[in-house]
Design goal:
Length: about 190
């Protein structure tokens, strides 16, 4: 019993350390964004792509569906939890789709990541979004693992650690995106 509690605490601590390191990475990048905004070549009129707004709504809804899945597991409602996890996966794929459409809008505006047609403003945006998407792919792996563990009855109302950690990580990714989105939209 003590060994199981120690294992649970260790897994929660590992997730916390990972989230803190991700927070520090993005805090550093947004700090660099603020400093770089004082440059003479900074685009003060650049508008964040509309598709990023749609992706933000999708990722917020995905937090709700995954949170509901967790609640269903706590009530031993496996079928409902699986539906919620599938919806979360679909919403996250929609998030990625609209992120890519947003990049298309940036490119259509004539801005690229590097080269003569790039700007420091859009290069920062590319870095922030691509780095967040890399973490989101880790979140998708978590979703797949949680889905199969749910399918194989590895969770119950008395054994929820895996889905609890997965939902915590997913909520963190969602919060992180909302922070980045609001930061870029509001910081001019």
């Amino acid at each position: 019993m003590i060994e199981k509690k120690t294992n649970i605490k260790a897994k929660k601590m590992m997730l916390l350390i990972g989230m803190i390191s991700m927070t520090m990475t993005f805090a550093g990048l947004t700090s660099a964004y603020v400093v770089s905004a004082t440059r003479s070549d900074w685009l003060s009129t650049f508008e964040v792509p509309f598709y990023f707004s749609i992706s933000t709504i999708l990722i917020l809804i995905s937090s709700l569906t995954f949170g509901m899945s967790k609640a269903f597991i706590h009530k031993n409602l496996k079928y409902n939890a699986l539906i919620g996890i599938i919806l979360t996966m679909i919403l996250s794929l929609g998030f990625i789709y609209f992120q890519l459409k947003g990049f298309g809008q940036i490119i259509d505006s004539g801005y690229y990541f590097t080269g003569a047609q790039s700007s420091i403003t859009t290069s920062f945006l590319y870095v922030l979004v691509i780095l967040h998407m890399a973490h989101l792919f880790a979140g998708l792996i978590v979703l797949v693992v949680v889905f199969f563990n749910t399918l194989n009855n590895k969770y119950s109302s008395s054994n929820t650690l895996g889905i609890d950690l997965g939902v915590t990580f997913w909520h963190f990714l969602d919060f992180l995106w909302c922070y980045l989105y609001l930061f870029v939209v509001l910081y001019k």
